[in-house]
Amino acid sequence: MARSSLWVLAFLAVFVPARALGQGVLVVVDSDVAVPLPRPIIIWPPHPPYPPHPPYPPPVWPRPRPEPEPPASYKVNQVEVQAKIAHQVASVQVSQTFENTGSRQIETSFVFPLPYDGAIEQMTLMVDGKEFPAKLLKADEARKIYEEIVRKNRDPALLEWIGTGMFKTSVFPVPPGAKRTVSLRYSQLLRQSDGLTDFIFPLSTAKYSSKPVEKLDVRVTIESGDDIKNIYSPTHPVEIKRPDEKHAVVTYSSKNEVPMADFRLFFDVGKEKLSTRVISYRPDKGDDGYFLLLATPQIKAAGDERPAKTVLFIIDRSGSMSGKKIEQVRAALKDVLNKLRPGDLFNIIAYDSQVEAFRPELQRFDENTRKAALGFVEGLYAGGSTNIEGALKAGLAQLQDDKRPTYIIFLTDGLPTAGETNEAKIIEAAKTFNKVRARVFSFGVGYDVNSRLLDRLVRENFGQSIYVRPEEDIESHVGKLYARIESPVLTDVKLDFAFDAKPEEGALVNRVYPKGSFDLFAGEQLVVVGRYKKPGTAKVIVSGRIGEKEEKFDFPASFVEHSTDETNGFIEKLWAGRRIGEILDEIDLKGKNDELIKELVAISTRHGILTPYTSFMADDSVNIHRTAENARRAADRLDALAATDGSAGVAQRAMKGALQGMGAAGPAAPAADMSLHRFAAEAAAAPGGRGGAGDERAYRLAEESKREADAVAQNVRQVGNRTFYRRDKQWIDSRITPEQEKQARRIKQFSDEYFELARRHGRTLAQYLAFDEPVLLAVGNEAYLIEP
């Protein structure tokens, strides 16, 4: 190697290592000095908390003090990805801008590892608009280069590429302070599995940058001869636009992000009214597997196929709603009223100390009733107390037709202070009066609401709680909900799974979330997760109503016996997040349960989904294997759920809702910014509701979360599908058992045995070797202690 530095630009995959291609990273190779890849000083948060991930702690490289910029360093200023998918072929163009932040000129070369299946055509590499020739290196030749760089720089990151061939360009200079824009164009035949086309672009390489990426843009257009059905990203909160049934545009944008996950997108096409696909993952043959079910109805059903619906507004107009709140409520009501369709039924119930209805009975929507309702809304004013039970009774009593899809938009900003004020009696009254199975969507405005009351209300009435913080806009939240429920196309939907099984085998699918029946809406992407006991083929049966007509659809599904890699490992983590949300809901609404608390701690520890009740796991003095002791700590913290109002009450239930809806797509997705830092800041904002023991415990929980959020950043690392905890200056795989830990085989980092381990297990294991400190790692039934 020449004495001058050689910078190699290469591609890296972290989230799905077996199917990666596409993203660039700069690697320094110097003959005199080992120069590892740059890392941000601290990553918190590493990116906007994506719905598939909250509230995972971020992977970080602990560097306790700010350090001067090294002579050889760089940052990624901008990444732009444009992809067009047609007939299972993706045409991709990537543009990346790198800036030499070091103090010397560097010589650079662009290296592109070939995809796993070699399905790349028409590759073109350009630097600042100038095309560079590329040399093809086979996998064995490429491995030598990768290993040489790893050995030289004492940096294990490149191990993830071992086993791939590469294209390598000629060398070009980058002066200090200068920028270079590298563009790559290629075509790729996408893989199909379980009826879904799978597009992957590894953005995560951009985490190797001294600063967050200033601007990141991804745009994927999909064209198909058949109707496009399911579109789902398990990794990013994408925006999906469907100009028509055969075209879709998927976008994701962010600023100042450190991307920790590759971009992944599933979609399928077909002609049926309802498309259902199942993906499964079973890492352990001796345990239940995990599955993800995606379902999407026709995007634009014919008008006579869309059932007319009933929409009932129950709106708080008590004195605390005065000013900006009541103005936003008026605007929200007007917006929804103008979007109702002929044939819909509606009414408006406004309440303070008294209850007033727009009309004594439901009204059929037409131009006359629309204008009259708008006039009623314009006359709403705030004043008086809050009679929640009276308003619910008055509204529910008007509902008589159980064959129509019926939705109640219930909004309040306060506690029940007039009429019945007992929480349990209010819930029981609503349940008794709801004879048509109306779905209640509650909006809790501000921090003075009884958040547990609202959660109980929607749980007993088939709906969802939505919390609007003081700085947020009521109209925006109501508008997002109505955009979802505007066009129901299949109501009271139930899922069944038919296996070829004996009766004594019992239920072969369990712990499915969301629970119970649900409605499907035009353009909605349904995301269901669950566990399965028996592998093999099965039939998924989706039944429901379209208007008054009963409908039933069935689809084939395959449940894998054993997953040999972690390509679909995200399903396990998605299920874990929703299961934690359900456990917290059970404890919140029914009281503490020892078995549930133990399960909460076990799942949180294994998957690194640390809520304020389990964030003590980030303390490096806590033994992750002492389940009983850790369960007692969690039980003490769960006392904070006694706080039902105030910012602490709202923050706890909003976090619970985010977990229950983890991985949901589109308008149905709950607010996802529930990192420990966010929780601590919000819970402490206005913690004192009524000054009881629960409020005091909630305040302490906020303080503990604030302190432990920094410990999470230092002591918990998410890599691929695993979680590692830093203990005694070494990292411990959460999957390690105490017995494995005692018998762990020691391997020296960068030794021949180390590289042989990486070669033998491939990229699935190699991503877990990228630690600067010792790491205790589970590999099947064996364990290895990798030491520098």
Q: How much helix is in the residues?
A: 10-25%
Number of strands: 39
> Average pLDDT across residues?
83
In terms of DSSP E residues, the strand content is 25-35%
Distance between the termini: 25 Å
Alpha-carbon Rg, integer? 28 Å
Helix count equals 15
- Largest sheet at a glance? 8 strands, mixed
Structural class: alpha+beta
> Which strand order do you get reading across the main beta sheet?
7-6-11-4-3-14-17-16
List unreliable stretches of 5+ residues. Answer: 1-23, 42-66
Shape: globular
Question: Could you explain how this protein is built, in words?
Answer:
- By secondary structure, the chain is of the alpha+beta class.
- Helices cover 25% and strands 33% of the residues.
- The chain has 15 helices and 39 strands.
- The strands form seven sheets. Strands 7-6-11-4-3-14-17-16 form an eight-stranded mixed sheet, with no helix packed on it.
- A hairpin with a 2-residue loop joins strand 35 (722-727) and strand 36.
- Helix 8 packs across helix 11 (646-660), helix 9 packs across helix 10 (627-637) and helix 12 runs antiparallel to helix 13.
- The longest helix is centred in the C-terminal third of the chain and has 23 residues, at 693-715.
- Residues 1-23 and 42-66 have low confidence and may be disordered.
List the helices and strands and how they pair.
Blueprint: E1 6-11, E2 24-29, E3 74-86, E4 89-100, E5 106-113, E6 120-127, E7 130-132, E8 134-137, H1 139-153, E9 166-169, E10 172-174, E11 179-189, E12 191-193, E13 196-201, E14 213-223, E15 227-232, E16 239-244, E17 247-257, E18 263-270, E19 274-281, E20 289-297, E21 310-316, H2 324-337, E22 345-351, E23 355-357, E24 363-364, H3 367-378, H4 388-396, E25 406-412, H5 423-433, E26 439-445, H6 451-460, E27 464-468, H7 474-485, E28 488-499, E29 509-513, E30 518-521, E31 526-532, E32 536-546, E33 549-559, H8 570-590, H9 594-607, H10 627-637, H11 646-660, H12 676-683, H13 693-715, E34 716-719, E35 722-727, E36 730-733, H14 738-742, E37 745-748, H15 752-766, E38 775-779, E39 782-787
Parallel strand pairs: 1-5, 3-14, 21-22, 21-25, 25-26, 26-27, 36-38, 37-39
Antiparallel strand pairs: 1-2, 3-4, 4-11, 5-9, 5-10, 6-7, 6-11, 8-9, 12-13, 13-18, 14-17, 15-18, 16-17, 19-20, 20-31, 22-23, 22-24, 28-30, 28-32, 29-31, 32-33, 34-35, 35-36, 38-39
